[in-house]
Design a protein that fits this description.
The structure holds two protein chains of two kinds.
Chain A: H1 5-36, H2 39-46, H3 61-71, E1 79-82, E2 93-98, E3 105-112, E4 118-122, H4 128-137, H5 145-170, H6 174-178, H7 187-201, H8 203-229, H9 255-265, E5 270-279, E6 282-290, E7 302-306, H10 324-337, H11 342-370, H12 385-410, H13 422-444, H14 446-473, H15 486-512, H16 536-539
Antiparallel strand pairs in A: 1-2, 1-5, 2-3, 3-4, 5-6, 6-7
Helix pairs in contact in A: 1-4, 1-5, 1-11, 1-12, 2-4, 5-8, 7-11, 8-10, 11-12, 12-13, 12-14, 13-14, 14-15
Chain B: H1 2-7, H2 18-43, H3 52-72, H4 79-104
Classes of the chains: A alpha+beta, B mainly alpha.
């Protein structure tokens, strides 16, 4: 495809600027986003063991519900029967007590002790998986949601512009360059090929992420404006018939019977829990779970109304049973969250997420390469300050995010035994490590700090499984959930040699690569044209 | 495209007016996205009372249109042209939307 040279030149400038402004925040969003694909297993791994007795079978769930409601009547407003209790949801019956805001609540779980008496525990669901997800959602910014979310939306818009402008730049030479991966002496060419290949191969994925993120950031103002400008009588949400009132001799079905009826109506739908809400004497129920053939608009599960008296599911909210418009919108969410296709698809999203992080990283590398002052007549010039600064920022922010997440994950198994406010500690550890890494990059320069921070990343990541190992012996309040947590530890362990290998290549580049580069150890000896010796400046 | 450039009749696009063009893309691009999503809400399948799913879809439409205008606004030769053309497009789209609301509401 032919595009005028002047258009390409303008769009190169557009691409460079939106890339520089948004690239590092997008790196954090993608690295944290890749990890958050396994939010649930991470939460399971990170939640300390419960002191509750093992959950009774689902056939006794209603006995337990009644015991809970008799002792804690306020639980009637929101309680659930868990079909498959797990480490992060370790009770058959759980309930919420409201806090100050809608999202702020305390969860309790109940079981029967060996003597048949009711046992109640405040659940200690781990906070660290939520921190990684929040970093992802707010592109790593340490601000309140109301401030960080619009910034994320603006970054998402810039990201969309970066995709379009990048596409315009590569289109004319797409066929020629696409299959070319020119690894060799010309480093700029090589990074360009890697950057282009990553961008083109994953373009549909990136377009989905950019546009859905714009909506995730701005849906409230979008609706508010449309309500004023577009619709004559407010936003038409459509009417659904209210739940039928029970007859005089109808009683809610027991949970095991509800499970059988739901499974008969929804083959392929894995039921996670039944939620019950009682309001002014009227009982409403919903069922949560996931059919991986259809994905969901939530991150990990779908939820729909259920008649607790008949077990009849109202499928209008359920992917695979929706009306066309709802199904289309569900697809947008599902494509962002990767909630379809099961674990294989989640791993693919991890790969795409890491590839995305690499896309932004290589973009910054290219910026630095294309501003390199080349060696002439045997004189090694100092590099421009802008290139040095961006080199330090790129290394510090990217690796700071990587090390910060590893460090806060590594602390997971040690913190509950030592401190109370886990969420604050996890956040504090992340940002302390992140800021220290950025500062270190500026102190040591891009090349040396890249090597050192990569080795630190390997160390911090190695500490993650060590916490679980300590848990096998029960040292210092640590724990290990046999079986379920292994994948998290194994993944961390597998990442260690990757960081070491990258560090090795960075050192090699420092020693043997071009001397006229921010990535060379020989830069300190370089002649500094930015700051000519005193007295020389005037003669220029 | 390149044929015209070869004849030399077309003024070459230059890297300038970044601020004016970007503002036009952000502000007028958003306006145009709202207006066009509104036109789709009225004229698209299902009409204005198309149900909750359609209402959500109409909202989603804003994102690609806004991002699209912001991406292509740099094709305007200068800031003034960007503001005038996008302003005219806004007037036309909002005019039509207003007429629909009067005529069909």
């Amino acid at each position: 495809m032919k595009i005028r040279n002047d258009v390409i030149k303008v769009y190169k400038d557009v691409h460079i600027w939106v890339g520089i402004v948004s690239g590092l925040m997008l790196f954090i969003a993608f690295y944290a986003g890749a990890i958050t694909m396994f939010e649930k297993p991470l939460e399971r791994w990170a939640t300390p063991p419960s002191a509750l007795a093992p959950p009774p079978p689902i056939e006794r769930a209603d006995e337990l519900r009644e015991a809970v409601l008799a002792r804690h009547p306020q639980a009637a407003k929101f309680h659930a029967v868990v079909v498959q209790p797990t480490a992060e949801m370790p009770a058959r019956v759980v309930w919420r007590e409201p806090g100050k805001t809608r999202r702020d609540f305390t969860e309790y779980g109940a079981s029967f002790a060996a003597d048949g008496s009711l046992q109640v525990e405040k659940l200690a669901r781990a906070q660290v998986a939520q921190l990684v997800d929040t970093l992802h959602q707010l592109v790593g910014l340490p601000f309140a949601d109301a401030v960080a979310r619009p910034i994320m939306g603006a970054v998402a818009l810039l990201y969309a512009v970066a995709l379009v402008s990048g596409l315009i730049i590569v289109l004319p030479t797409l066929v020629k360059d696409f299959f070319a991966l020119r690894l060799g002496k010309n480093i700029k060419r090589m990074w360009m090929d890697v950057h282009n290949a990553l961008g083109i191969v994953s373009l549909p994925f990136h377009l989905v992420m950019a546009l859905t993120s714009v909506v995730f950031a701005f849906h409230t103002p979008f609706y508010a404006v449309q309500e004023k400008v577009v619709y004559p009588h407010g936003l038409p949400w459509g009417q659904h018939a209210p739940a039928p009132l029970p007859g005089p001799h109808e009683y809610p079905l027991p949970a095991d019977e509800l499970l059988r009826r739901v499974e008969a109506q929804l083959p392929g739908f894995e039921v996670y829990s039944f939620i019950f809400r009682e309001d002014h004497g009227q009982l409403e129920a919903s069922v949560t779970g996931l059919d991986i053939r259809y994905g969901t608009r939530g991150r990990t599960y779908a939820s729909t109304h259920l008649n607790p008296y008949t077990g009849e599911v109202d499928p209008h909210d359920l992917p695979g049973h929706m009306e066309p418009w709802d199904a289309t919108v569900n697809t947008f969410f599902m494509l962002h969250f990767g909630s379809y296709g099961g674990n294989a698809m989640r791993w693919l999203y991890v790969a795409m997420g890491l590839a995305g992080a690499m896309l932004f990283y290589t973009g910054n590398l290219l910026w630095i390469e294309s501003r390199r002052r080349k060696q002439r007549d045997g004189v090694v010039p100092g590099q421009k300050r802008s290139a040095r600064v961006l080199g330090c920022l790129t290394v510090g922010v990217s690796l700071g995010c990587v090390i910060g997440i590893s460090a806060t994950l590594a602390a997971t198994k040690w913190l509950p035994g030592q401190v109370d406010d886990l969420a604050a500690w996890h956040e504090g550890i992340y940002y302390a490590v992140f800021l220290a890494a950025v500062a270190w990059a500026f102190v040591r320069g891009a090349a040396r700090s890249a090597d050192e921070l990569l080795r630190l990343a390997a160390l911090a990541t190695l500490l993650i499984p060590l916490g679980s190992l300590a848990g096998i012996w029960g040292v210092g309040g640590t724990w290990n959930h046999p079986g379920t947590g292994f994948a998290v530890d194994a993944t961390a362990l597998a990442a260690v040699p990757v960081f070491l290998l990258l560090a090795h290549h960075t050192r090699k580049r420092m020693r043997e690569g071009h001397a006229d580069s921010v990535w060379s150890a020989k830069q300190e000896a370089a002649v500094e044209p930015d700051a000519p010796p005193r007295g020389m400046a005037a003669s220029k | 495209m390149s044929g015209k450039a070869a004849t030399g009749n077309v003024r070459r696009l230059e890297s300038r007016h970044w601020f004016g063009k970007s503002c036009a893309g952000v502000l007028l691009g958003f306006g145009l996205a709202v207006a066009l999503s509104g036109l789709f809400a009225w004229l698209g399948p299902g009409g204005i009372e198309g149900g909750g799913g359609k209402t959500q879809f109409n909202m989603w439409l804003i994102a690609p249109i806004w991002a699209g205008v912001l991406s292509f606004v740099f094709l305007f030769r200068d800031s003034l042209r960007a503001w005038l053309w996008l302003g005219a497009a806004n007037l036309a789209a909002f005019g039509l939307l207003g007429a629909l609301r009067l005529g069909m509401g």
